[in-house]
Request: fold
Amino acid sequence: MIDNRSPYFVFVPFCLLAQAYQAKGLVKYEWKSSIKPFIDLLMANDINIIQMPCAESSYKKSLIREPMGLKKYNTDEFNQHCEELANNVFEEIKQIIDNNYKIIAILGIEQSPSCCVNYIYTNHGNERRKGLFIQKLYDKIKDYNIPIIGINRKYINKSLKELESLIKKIKK
Ligand code: SF4
Reply:
């Protein structure tokens, strides 16, 4: 039986594919729906795209919300919500690895209180830290050595190149 499936996976934040899930006023750049260069790169290389849940919209049960800082999200309830979502994503990651497929990377969105990887914007400037959801996911997967790349939506080139070079390395 012919089975032509790709064994490669990248996990992406929900809003990379559907920017309508971003908080109000954040979708200012040239792509109205998906952040195309990432999706184009993944599709061109036959990478399976797994859309991780949007912690903020699923917590609010709405796509419409004002942007809020870390302080407002950093509550017991929201952290518990992120913990549940991170557990579900972790289960998917384990299944993929147990089936001998390869996860090339997990992507996050810099400055998001939930999904940033390296830095978050606060009233006192940028703070180096992971977002509430990504931190919980990272704590579960750190032994798997899966690269986590943070996308700066204003200057995507650095993260796009990082992803490109991971794909090249793995497909050699
Ligand atoms: S919580 Fe994450 S997935 Fe949802 S809009 Fe913010 S960055 Fe995107």
